[in-house]
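Final report, closing paragraph on structural work. Over the funding period we assembled a curated collection of sequence-structure pairs, and we close with a single example.
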Amino acid sequence: MEMLHCVDAIKSAIGMPTNKVKTILERLFRRGGNTNKKLLLLDTAEFYAFIINNEHLLKEEFREVTADMAVKMSMLLHPKKSMFRIPEQDFFKYDPGVKNEVEYLSNAYQEYTSGYATSLVRSTSEMLFEQYCESCDDIEWVYKNGDTGQQYFSIVYIDALQHQWLFYADYIVMKKDGTVWVIETKGGESHGQDKNIDKQTENKFNAFKKYATEKGLHWGFVRDKDSQLYINNTEFALDMADKHWVSLANEF
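Its predicted structure, as stored:
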């Protein structure tokens, strides 16, 4: 049962049928068949133990491989489309221990406070972005999008297996001059280490860029480094030292 649980976990991560995941694992690690293409030659008991003990690592490797492959592949998408409207009301996680709580007047909802944007309930880049927007005088409103559900704004992207997935950008911002920005925040860098754990980032970036170009939207991926925010809406680059990552204040 544990073995099947592990295979199901990998299947859920990449959208591949259970039987295909099991076949790939057996061809790579289990004794039998063409030994020239095996990474390991494990008997049945060893094979089961290997899969169970390395479930997390295998799941991440499958994610990374399918993400890398998808960059080189494309297909014509025909996703369902629907009109998006900001919900009249919504629910957000709240930090009851927030100190010096203040209302964020830039938020699309009334009575949205700093208690909804602390490190307990938001990522660092989200928290910094909401603070940044609150400090700007050219923003009409900021909407924090949900991360699942038909009532929220989403964009379709594909993985290497040609499966369609929904990507929910984090923020929609209306400037006072009428321009609309759609912003996705990602983990940045800390002490020289990459904090972004999303293996599909490049696929999402490219799908986002294509969508924004077609719709005439301002957009960008925003990440944090040394408590400062940087934006990229040109060419994907994971390394924040790359020239395509520029100060948020210069672009947004």
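Residues 128 and 229 are 7 Å apart (CA to CA). Helices lie at 2-14, 18-29, 44-53, 55-71, 124-135, 201-215, 248-251. We thank the funder for supporting this effort.
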